[in-house]
Amino acid sequence: MKSKKYNILIFISALLLCLSSCGNPSLLIGDTASMGEARFKDITSAIEDKNTEDLKSLFSTNALKKVENFEGDAEYLFDFFQGNIISTKVASAGSGSKNNGERTEEINYKYTVTTSKEKYIVFFTDVLVDTENPDNEGLYMLQIIKESDRKEQFDWGGDKTKCPGIYRPPASTGSAIS
Hints:
The protein is α+β, with helices and mostly antiparallel strands. Helix content is 38%, strand content 29%. The chain has two domains: 1-29; 31-173, Nuclear Transport Factor 2, Chain: A. It has seven helices and five strands; from the N terminus they run ααααααββββαβ. The protein has a five-stranded mixed β-sheet.
């Protein structure tokens, strides 16, 4: 009986060692889902309260340095996101890297949110760890669009829409508030 317990303990230890050596253990273990949910709640709480300072505090120092008018972008978002949240559906993807002992870990979270007035996509990029430059840690980007505008305004990789701060769609789509 002790032999079986010992073998199971060895197997679990070896498995954890293998997973942690893959370069991004938190993604493999799964704690990023709860981190994303906590961040999502912080974002939606700030929006519901129309609290610019709370929303701003979620962003990294370096992202905020690249934004021209955070307060105006926050006001846009407060006006754009309408209704009470009825349901959410989440999908996330992560990336991480190690270079010469330095480590970065960035997660992209995508929520489909149904409110009492509209259906939205809430997408955000969260830098969880940057050992080389901790000023990068925090939200880099927040994008909230109507789900119906997904084809024109959303790209999962962020090649077209990734920007520091709050994403505002081009005025030509008709979704931007002037």
